[in-house]
Amino acid sequence: MEKEFKELTKAEEQIMQVIWEIQHGFVKDVIAYLPEPKPAYNTVSTIIRILETKGFVKHKAFGKSHQYLPAITKEEYKNYATDKLLNGYFENSVESMFSFFVKKQKIDLKEADEILKLIEKLKTDK
Q1: pLDDT tens figures, 52-84
Q2: Domain count, the chain
Q3: 28, 31, 26, 2: which is closest to 15 by C-alpha?
Q4: Is the pLDDT of residue 2 over 60?
Q5: Which residue in 10, 71, 79, 93 has the fewest CB atoms around it within 10 Å?
Q6: Is the Cα torsion angle 91, 72, 20, 76 positive or negative in sign?
Q7: Which domain holds residue 116?
Q8: CA of residue 19 relative to chain centroid, distance
Q9: For the domain that residue 36 is a member of, what is the CATH number?
Q10: C-alpha–C-alpha distance, residues 83 and 91, integer Å
Q11: Residues 33, 34, 40, 42, Cα dihedral to 10°
């Protein structure tokens, strides 16, 4: 059964990227990985608690302190976000999405060639 995710805000996603990278840490550890200017401790703590409510983060209690860890993998969220993008903006057409990125020059010819080789390899591996 596929997990249901709630949408992440930009700030929540930034915090999740750090938690995925460090795998576990306290609020101060998350803040240390954020770019300058550093957000306030209470801001990061609040966002992490929201992420926990949404099911993205879990914690281990150490006295009054909490160590936070990802409750879902980055891969799981990447699959969700990609599917949402594909279904919401490209009518579930990989070709349409690929064409969009090529037209926007987000994919150069070398990358396009590598993607096509990967597709061919996937076809032959079946």
Answers
A1: 999 999 999 999 999 999 999 999 998 888 888
A2: 2
A3: 31
A4: no
A5: 10
A6: negative
A7: 74-125
A8: 10
A9: 1.10.10.10
A10: 10
A11: -60
